[in-house]
Amino acid sequence: MAKLTVNNYEELAARLGEKLGESEWLLVDQERINLFADATLDHQWIHVDTERAAVESQYKSTIAHGYLTLSLLPHMWQEIIEVNNLKMMVNYGMDKMRFGRPVLVNSRIRLVASLDSIENLRGICKAGIKFQIEIEGERKPALEGIATFLYYFE
Questions:
Q1: Pfam families recorded for this chain (predicted)?
Q2: Is the pLDDT of residue 1 over 80?
Q3: CA 16 to CA 14: how far, in whole Å?
Q4: In degrees to the nearest 10, what's the CA dihedral of 38, 54, 72, 44?
Q5: Residue 2: pLDDT band by 50, 70, 90 thresholds?
Q6: Which of 47, 101, 113, 144: CA 20 to 30 A from 65?
């Protein structure tokens, strides 16, 4: 699916209820997991101790932090859409967010997004993006919810 380009509120609003796109598949390897553990100071063994996880974990491998999966959303979102004529964009909130499946090390994930809601708040575009972060080869998503962004168009 080609990257969507939006230049103003009206162009985005015209997509209400539509699938906006899907990102490329992204590998979640042990290096990425370890770097996230270092950045967040969350070194729980299920994420970083490959030997222990192979023996003691029900998954028989390490898994990505749920918040690592969530933190990859902005990168994958930028692969789906290019929003032009902006002063700035602000992450406003997350609603109905649920972790459905763990992301095992060396899995590939992608974002699938649709426009769930949109409002013009005195010149500020408030967009609710329904998202699923899928795991390649899995039926159930790793994460789903609604991300709300504020777009300040020029």
A1: MaoC_dehydratas
A2: no
A3: 6
A4: -40
A5: confident
A6: 113
